From TrEMBL, chain A:
It comes from the Bacteria. It is a multi-pass membrane protein. The chain crosses the membrane at residues 53-71, 124-146, 153-171, 202-221, 249-269, 289-313, 325-350. GO terms for cellular component: plasma membrane. The keyword Transmembrane helix applies. This is Urea transport system permease protein. Its main location: membrane. GO terms for molecular function: branched-chain amino acid transmembrane transporter activity. The keyword Cell membrane applies. InterPro entries: ABC_transp_permease, ABC_transptr_urea_perm_UrtC, LivM-like. It is found in: Cell membrane.
From TrEMBL, chain B:
SUPFAM superfamilies: P-loop containing nucleoside triphosphate hydrolases. This is Urea transport system ATP-binding protein. One of its GO terms (molecular function) is ATP binding. The keyword Transport applies. CDD domains: ABC_Mj1267_LivG_branched (cd03219). GO terms for cellular component: plasma membrane.
Length: 370, 268
């Protein structure tokens, strides 16, 4: 059972191998507890949790792309940024009167809105843009690359270059992108005042609902034949090709779904954090995203959520106490996970089932294990 | 879709002509080294052919050229009266050719039954994989093949956990599950003992008729059990064709193999 976990069978994660019924009950309990968070934690903590849950959407996308598809992307920050900037542009424009320009454009001496900003005045375009812009970019990019059978390390390097180029572009086009500072100082979204506790609660619940929905949808996708074929392509792309399948569209679909989820995560994060900037989308944040998933377990959706929460909580704690130490701590965690814990936290839970004490602990937590 | 699937299942019995495959003067040039040199071969539907030749004779390269893994520098590959020389690999497979590789090409992370299910899937276009559920006919076929290859009780095991011989059988099963009209079996008995080898020979003989089968192998006792027409290759070219007995008695073939045997004694 723990073997099948590492090999990436669909029923993975901390819930693997547990008798049916229990995991469902446990998941419902966790979701119910999370839904009550606005009354259980402070406003500051709720905001942190909301940000981390938004990031967990991206992390679940990486489970599909990296864990199941074997495609390591070091450029998820690009799609996160595309989603974040799409919603941020709308919020900047929505706060303006007719003919006015966002403040940073005025300071930079622009006298007209750049053409590509104009459609984002419409809330519908902005919401569609959050998923469609990253989705279309990812589909075209990955199709062009996978069709030429570029994969593995080369693909990872190309995506990293993409992240670098994207952040550099944002900074260099300061008059129309807000440059290094990004876009910030949002007042309302879709007519809702962002400053109120009600808005914070609503956005938190929206994020939680999306996390639950995406979890269920991705789980269904991973247990479908598409999921089986994606794992098969990861393990033997040529064998699949010589069984009459074209691997390219399978990988493109996975990469595109990963990008759409990253875009969604970026938009929600921007709403929770009140800012989107190049510092959130470049090379370093893109690598951090991979680390969340490595820590949680790259074949486990639940693991990816847990890893995202754990790493970001640690980041919050470490960087407020020792601001200079965070990157070293993160690097150390990554090295430890890669060398000692290839299945991440999810693998640890699954492996624990193999030892007597682990079994007892697991039985205690989750009921009868198989 | 079911009707179509059933139709093509029987499709092998209603040939437009008996000629299935024609390799027509194919040359494969690796930077000056001609792995295949103007090689030609024809194969009728439902027939068995064995391809032998010393190492480096171009047997595997021939399979590669048929299936599109390497591309012919000149010459053509005609399958079911259509030129497939420049089609993408998955297109060639979809037209009815499937290959078993020399080293077992099973998918280690998937269960035995999932390996077969992927191979047995009729509709291999990506958007068809989002549908849940498996056609009853595909399930029945997989169950049937599991019995035939003797892995029914290991259906749920990861393919990576199988013994070497079992992996070979699983891959043969996968190739058969595709219902291809032409099966290319590259050293199907590599790493097998005598008992497994004769079981494999019996299995292959059962496949003939429904599929045309091209087997590459070195093992003489295996060839005798297959009892098929033999084509001998040497240095990328056609050397001889005939029955197993005729080939065994042939002086040219003996010279080619003895030449190799002499080299082998040098090596040790």
């Amino acid at each position: 059972m723990d073997m099948s976990m590492r090999k990436g069978t669909p029923l993975s994660g901390p819930l693997a191998g547990v008798t049916l019924g229990r995991p469902m009950a446990l998941s419902l309990a966790v979701v119910a507890l999370a839904a009550l968070a606005p009354w259980l934690v402070s406003a500051y903590e709720l905001n942190l949790l909301a940000r981390f849950l938004a990031m967990a959407l991206l992390a679940m996308g990486l489970v599909l792309v990296w864990g199941q598809g074997g495609v390591l992307s070091l450029g998820q920050g690009v799609f996160f940024g595309l989603g974040g900037y799409a919603i941020a542009m709308h919020m900047k424009l929505a706060a303006l009167g007719d003919g006015d320009l966002p403040d940073f454009m005025v300071w930079s001496g622009l006298d007209a809105l750049p053409w590509w900003w104009v459609p984002f005045k419409s809330p519908l375009v902005a919401i569609l843009g959050v998923v469609l812009v990253p989705g279309v970019v990812a589909a075209l990019f990955s199709w062009a690359v996978f069709r030429r059978r570029v994969g593995g390390v080369y693909f990872a390097l190309i995506t990293q270059a993409l992240a670098l180029a994207f952040a550099t572009l944002l900074i260099s086009q300061q008059p129309s992108t807000g440059g290094f500072n990004g876009l910030t100082d949002f007042q309302t979204v879709m007519g809702v005042d962002l400053g109120t506790p009600a808005a914070a609660h609503g956005l938190y619940w929206l994020t939680l609902a999306l996390v639950v929905g995406v979890f269920v949808a991705l789980r269904a996708l991973m247990t479908s034949r598409y999921g089986t074929l994606l794992r098969a392509i990861r393990d033997g792309e040529n064998r699949i090709r010589f069984l009459g399948y074209d691997p390219t569209p399978f990988k493109v679909v996975a990469f595109t779904i990963g990008a759409v989820l990253a875009g969604l995560a970026g938009a929600l994060f921007t709403l929770h954090a009140g800012v989107v900037s190049p510092a959130l989308v470049g090379v370093v944040p893109s690598i951090e995203m991979v680390i969340w998933v490595a820590v949680g377990g790259r074949n486990s959706l639940a693991g990816a959520i847990a890893g995202t929460l754990a790493v970001n909580l640690a980041k919050d704690g470490v960087s407020s106490a020792f601001p200079d130490l965070w990157l070293y701590a993160l690097g150390l965690v990554f090295v430890l996970v890669v060398t000692l814990l290839p299945g991440g936290l999810a693998g640890l839970v699954a492996d624990a089932g193999g030892t007597t004490w682990g079994r007892r602990l697991k039985t205690l937590i989750m009921g009868e294990a198989k | 879709m079911n009707a179509q699937a059933t139709a093509s299942h029987i499709g092998t019995t209603a040939p437009a002509s008996t000629l299935l495959l024609a390799v027509d003067g194919v040359t494969v040039d690796f930077d000056g080294f001609k792995a295949l040199n103007g090689f030609s071969l024809t194969l009728d539907r439902g027939t068995l052919r064995v391809l032998i030749g010393p190492n480096g004779a171009g047997k595997s390269t021939l399979c590669d050229a048929i299936i599109g893994r390497v591309r012919a520098t000149s010459g053509r590959v005609i399958f079911k009266d259509q030129d497939i020389t420049h089609l993408p690999e998955h297109e060639i497979v979809r037209r009815g050719i499937c290959r078993k590789f020399q080293t077992p090409g099973v998918l280690p992370g998937l269960s035995v039954v999932d390996n077969l299910m992927i191979a047995a899937k009729r509709d291999r276009r990506w958007w068809s994989t989002f549908r849940h559920g498996v056609a009853a006919e595909e399930k029945a076929r997989v169950a049937d093949i599991l019995e035939t290859i003797g892995l029914a009780d290991r259906a749920a095991a990861p393919a990576g956990h199988l013994a070497h011989g079992e992996k070979q059988w699983l891959e043969i099963g996968m190739v058969v599950a595709t219902r291809a009209d032409l099966l290319l079996l590259d050293e199907p008995t590599a790493g097998m003992g005598p008992a497994e080898t004769s079981q494999t020979a019996a299995l292959i003989r059962r496949l003939v008729g429904q599929h045309a089968v091209l087997v590459i192998d070195h093992d003489m006792s295996f060839l005798e059990q297959l009892d098929a027409r033999v084509t001998v290759m040497h240095q990328g070219q056609f050397l001889k064709e005939g029955s197993v007995a005729a080939i065994r008695a042939d002086a040219d073939v003996a010279a080619v193999y003895l030449g190799r045997a002499k080299e082998d004694t040098h090596h040790g």
